[in-house]
Design brief:
This protein has about 260 residues and is an alpha/beta fold. The chain has a single domain, classed as 3-Layer(aba) Sandwich (Stationary-phase Survival Protein Sure Homolog, Chain: A), CATH 3.40.1210. The chain contains 7 helices and 11 strands.
Length: about 260
């Protein structure tokens, strides 16, 4: 079993190597990870400049590791390009949860997404943030999941409360809740004129029963299956009755509403 591992906290992050250490017992591990922290970079890819790839000394024996001057998505795209026979992709272990709306901005999820788009089972895995971060439960779970997801096509977003294994209250399949760090940004001055900083505020999570947010709040591990389509319901009251008029205004034409006779 060949496992490609990336993250968004950068190739030196302890969460990455905790994950690699456990996965290396399940199969052959190849690391392609960003050279520096890319949290919040989401699904971004680098198009207008070269992406450098450099083999580095792994922190776990028997593993090959490459530092990528780019994003988590770049790392997985390149990694799958230069490596034959990858069976699955893991991204993490992120230092900090990726719940609710933060899923869309998460570089951890953005890395795993590239594996999923190639048809591979792919897992983003994160631990709720508080010091010290317990990566060991997440790492062990990743090792157990690797044996169970092989051959399937799926994108899983896994979040764990930051507790030891004795304090885990359950394991639940969830849906994505609402709110998060990404809907609570603060803007601040950077000091220099015209320079600002976008800072993470206090997350405004609202998670009902069955959401990722609620599960982690209750001390449970959350496994959220994601899919690559973002479409909402096709009904759109603001536009549904006025599409013919909108089209007429856009491209001209007679007064007869399109679709009527
Ligand atoms: Mn991160």
């Amino acid at each position: 079993m060949k496992i490609l591992v990336t993250n968004d906290d950068g190739i030196e992050a302890p969460g990455l190597w905790a994950l690699v250490g456990e996965l290396a017992r399940a199969g052959e591990v190849i690391v392609f990870a960003p050279s520096r922290e890319q949290s919040g970079i989401g699904t971004a890819i680098t198009l207008k400049q070269p992406v450098r790839l450099e083999e580095v000394e792994p922190l776990v024996a028997g593993v090959s590791a490459y530092r990528v001057e780019g994003t988590p998505a770049d790392s997985v795209i390149l990694g799958l390009e230069v490596t034959d026979g990858v069976d699955m992709v893991f991204s993490g272990i992120n230092r900090g949860s990726n719940l609710g709306n933060d899923v869309l901005l998460s570089g951890t999820v953005g890395g795993a997404l590239q594996g999923y788009l190639k048809g591979l089972p792919s897992v983003a895995i994160s631990v709720d943030y508080s010091e010290p971060v317990h990566f060991e439960v997440a790492a062990k779970l990743a090792g157990l999941l690797a044996h169970r997801i092989r051959g399937g096509s799926m994108l899983l977003n896994v979040n764990l409360p930051n507790v030891d294994s004795a304090s885990i209250r359950g394991l639940e399949i969830t849906r994505v809740g609402r709110g998060g760090y990404s809907t609570a940004f603060r803007m601040g001055q950077d000091g220099a004129p015209g320079a600002y900083r976008i800072a993470l505020g206090k997350p405004d999570w609202t998670g009902g029963q069955g959401t990722d947010i609620q599960a982690v709040r209750q001390g449970k591990i959350s496994i959220t299956p994601l899919k690559g389509t973002l479409s909402s319901a096709r009904k759109l009251p603001a536009l549904d009755g006025s599409l013919p008029a909108l089209l007429r205004e856009l491209v001209g034409g007679d007064e007869t509403p399109l679709g009527s006779s």
